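S1.2 Input.
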Amino acid sequence: MKKIAASIITIGDELLIGQVIDTNSAWMAQELNKTGVWVKRRVAVGDVWDEIWNALNEEHEKSQIILITGGLGPTADDITKPLLSQYFGGKLIVDEGALQNVKYIFEKVLNRPMIDRNLKQAEVPDVCTVIQNKRGTAPGMWFEKDGRIFISMPGVPHEMKGMMTDYVLPELQKKFTLPTILHTTLLTAGIGESFLADHINAFEVALPSHIKLAYLPNYGMVRLRLTATGDNKETLEIELQHHFNELKNLVKEWMAIDDDLSMQQAVGKLLIKKNKTLGTAESCTGGYIAHLLTANSGASNYYKGSIVSYSNEIKQSVLHVDEQTIKTVGAVSEETVKQMITGALNILQTDFMIAVSGIMGPDGGTPEKPVGLVFVAVGNKEKVVVQKFNFRFDRQRNIELTATNALNMLRKFIEAEA
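S1.3 Output.
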């Protein structure tokens, strides 16, 4: 089956100067891939007429579907709509559905008066199919030219996602006969990408041409994804699962979870399965581990809370770390994180606890205790395990690596206790 290719064009000076991170392209690519559309190119351009025009011409030559986000606001630098009107040979008119939507949002939702600039959001080229915006004021637009489909949507992620989910993806599935694309993913920890590749090299070489293996490394973990493409979904699912089972068996020593989940999600799933609770006592990570855990819906079922004991005074007064321990071996030590575990367990009354203390940098290191030195403890009231790490990276990466390794230590601790 012939691949249907798509290009994504994101518009905005703020994307090019790094003021705003482009999360739209990644999300759109993932959702298109799920439906069987192959994303061939992603292009970012500024709010410049000629650059947008040239990008449309270039992607017209490369893809059947061109998705555009950004530049649909009410200000002078939002030039996408008049440009598209000229590009497709139309003129701007007021769309009654879009107008009523703008009025409703200002009168009923925002409860504030409109100005002419706001009403202009209801203008669209008369040569497009209007995509109503259920989450904002700027409508989307669907154009067709020379067998190509151009779809323009707002750059606001929440609004774009609504249009993609409710209208764009279903319409594309009606327009094209799309192949089946299936993915299976597992997460490994404790082994580097190159060593992992060597270990499973024979497996990778033996894969059929329509099944590909991807390595996705990140902060001490490697995600392995198998992607299969074909016409018959049922047959493809059976074949893919066979190869996935073989892969799982090969990497079982390092596999954290056989699903496309983050480490914190894997830990949460394990805690729910065991019907156990977790708390954290954080120093150097400043609550980052708690943030990772509580970013997941349903975390209240297993996560009770955190004590962020960033200063030595809080370690002593709240967690009851012994003052003599701080004086003799320091806050960044095995003894301190062990005592942090004990104190936090008594306060939070959880089944398991994580405690971390370290030097994240760029300042604060000494020859004896350099930047990147971290002690992580995990345990319960019966047993505590401590591990020492030396990360030697920038502050943010040291924090993220500490959190990832702490969660993985807890995962192994819980599994060992079963």
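S1.4 Remarks. The chain has three domains: 4-175, 180-257, 263-417.
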